[in-house]
Amino acid sequence: MARVYSPGALSADDIFATGMRDQWHAVCPSDWIERGAIRKLERLGEQWVLFRQSDGQVRMLADRCPHRGAPLSQGMHLGDRIACQYHGVQVGGDGTVLAVPGMPGCNLEGKKLVRSLPIREVGGAILAWFGTDPEAEPGPLDVPERLADDDISAFLCYVEWDTPWRFALENLLDPMHGAFLHHESHSMAGGATSARFRIRETDRGFFFEKTDQRGVNFDWVEFCRTGVDWVDLEIPYPATAGPGGSFGIVGMATPIDATKTATFFWRYRRVSGWERDVWRFLYKTTLEARHWAVLEQDRVMLEHMAADADQAENLYQHDLGVIRLRRMYRNQAEEQAKRLANA
């Protein structure tokens, strides 16, 4: 049986395994949550239910009825609320019990008894704030500028991998794997197979980049913390791949549980007018299948790595970005666990 994680009982190891709290995480594609439908999801090792209200707003609740603990995901969508199938208890999108049909006037009515997460929809995806204090206001969210720029056209690619979330994110902080794992790719066949790297600090994170090659292969990645953790990278494209110059990727990795990851990739190019139409046509007819092939190479490699692969490594200079990431998350997990223990 899967372990149920309670925010008040999380250790540093729990947080390191199932994801950082007190920040935003991408949850699922927006089109997963249709009007009138209920969707059950596991994220950060916890069970959730999502539904879109009649006004179009998405709501995300803990998947547990406050009456007897039955799953709300088995209930009925009633516009602005879910009615539990077990005894009909109706819970609103903010977690408040709105009605107890079996006992009108019951003292449960009017009380906020179900955890509800703040939601934002960004670039065709639903983001949620996973706070350690359910009563606290969510932190600020600065949307990746690539997803907010009208002159950039992006496609969201979503995939679930049977690998720890850190492995998926570390894969993106490892540009050198492009020259080996993806060397037969149409976009990563060029460039040297040896390099030196450096970390360059920014006001929102850092760049991990090659010092002796730029604009040839997967030569740099920027890790950003803007309320949500994400990476940005570019892969040079030849003119035969259509307008827009380099092909960019904004990536996020959200833990489903300690061993599975929800992975989000926005594939983008800077195009407008007729060039936008050309790019989108080429992507859907030709380029998308090639990009899925590259992702499949990543998936196969990561899913075949042992769960404790990071406990028996011998790292070198190319792994500075990975080392930086691990130390940051380990320190954050310990700080969050300490706050929870003292709360």
Task: Write structural notes for this entry.
The protein is α+β, with helices and mostly antiparallel strands. The protein folds into 2 domains: 23-130, Rieske Iron-sulfur Protein (3-layer Sandwich), CATH 2.102.10.10; 145-329, Naphthalene 1,2-dioxygenase Alpha Subunit, Chain A, domain 1 (Alpha-Beta Complex), CATH 3.90.380.10. The protein is 20% helix and 29% strand. The protein has helices at 12-18, 165-172, 273-303, 320-342; strands spanning 23-29, 38-43, 46-52, 58-62, 76-77, 81-83, 90-92, 97-99, 119-122, 125-130, 152-161, 197-202, 205-210, 220-225, 229-235, 247-255, 261-270. Strands 11-17-16-15-14-13-12 form a 7-stranded antiparallel β-sheet. Strands 5-6-7-8 form a 4-stranded antiparallel β-sheet, with no helix packed on it. Strands 1-10-9 form a 3-stranded antiparallel β-sheet, with no helix packed on it. Strand 14 and strand 15 form a beta hairpin. Helix 1 packs across helix 4. The radius of gyration is 22 Å and the shape is globular.
